[in-house]
Write a structure and sequence with these properties.
Layout (H helix, E strand, L loop, with lengths): L12 H4 L4 E5 L24 H14 L7 E2 L9 E4 L2 H5 L9 E4 L5 E6 L3 E7 L4 E7 L1 H6 L1 H11 L8 E4 L9 E2 L1 H10 L7 E3 L6 E3 L1 H11 L3 E4 L14 H6 L8 E7 L3
Parallel strand pairs: 2-5, 3-4, 8-12
Antiparallel strand pairs: 1-13, 4-7, 5-13, 6-7, 6-8, 9-11, 10-11
Length: 266
């Protein structure tokens, strides 16, 4: 197999005019993994070759001009928890990856990354304050507050809520996300207006769920400038890994893509 020379992530116009801040929503392009994990699989939790995952992560860090050890990611557990980092030494004190689902920093040189394979990767930036964040939000994280907590953690570092730009990257879209009645009931019990994010499914008693729509609404209600790329992971196997697509295909495992953001060093 011929390996591509390097990753070329998708960038958001809304986050691009941010001075020293650089970001990318990485696809499968530009990695060395093979088979089920073809391309840029950065999933430490997958059964892919450690060597391949390590090389892929190094390529992501390299795109930011950073050493591999400056790419920081979490042991994601669908929680509302956020880690605030002051620097790479601060990160090393954690030892193993902490269990949380968002990262924030104002320290140049750190590359904050969140992994996804249908859940929503959200990148945040306040250009003026020089504060960035990255969050992983599936339905559970979005419902329990990981987005709002990320905003609060950024404000704690000096960001202004109304200046924060937050963009949802590739995630599973409404047309690909069928859920059962218990799922719908859970959301409507939380807020009856969430009915707007469910539409009829071809399967009786089920519904199609608009996770991206809900995510953007929660961000807007948190007072930030919110948007999304509008890209579905399930529907685009060439560019994205998808947990649900893998499950439907009865494949034994799946890769993870990464979305990352950094304040560049002078």
């Amino acid at each position: 197999m011929q390996h591509e020379t390097g990753p070329r992530p998708i960038v958001s116009e809304a986050l691009s005019d941010t001075g020293r801040i650089r970001h990318g929503y990485f696809t499968r392009q530009g990695g060395v993994s093979e088979g089920l994990y073809r391309g840029l699989n950065v999933g430490i939790g997958s059964a892919d070759s450690r060597e391949h995952v390590g090389e892929n992560r190094a390529r992501v860090a390299g795109w930011f001009g950073a050493p591999a050890e400056n790419l920081v990611t979490l042991y994601q557990v669908h929680s509302p928890d956020v880690v605030t980092l002051d620097g790479i030494e601060d990160w090393r004190r954690y030892g193993e990856r902490p269990k949380a689902d968002a990262l924030v920093t104002k320290r140049p040189g750190l590359v904050l990354g969140v992994l996804s394979a249908d859940c929503g990767p959200i990148l945040f930036a306040d250009r003026q304050a020089g504060v960035v964040g990255a969050a992983h939000a599936g339905w559970k994280g979005a419902l329990t507050g990981v987005l709002e907590n990320t905003v609060e953690a950024m404000v704690g570092l000096g960001a202004e809520r109304e200046r924060i730009v937050a963009v949802l990257g590739p995630s599973i879209g409404r047309d690909s996300y069928e859920v059962g009645p218990e799922f719908v009931e859970r959301f409507l019990a939380h807020d009856p207006s969430y009915e707007a994010y469910f539409s009829p499914s071809p399967k009786d008693g089920h519904a199609m769920f608009d996770l991206p729509g809900l995510t953007v609404r929660r961000l807007q209600q948190a007072g930030v400038q919110a948007g999304q790329l509008g890209l579905c992971t399930y529907a685009d196997a060439d560019r994205f890994f998808s947990y649900r697509r893998t499950t439907h295909a009865r494949e034994p495992d799946y890769g993870r893509q990464i979305s990352a953001i950094a304040i560049m060093e002078d």
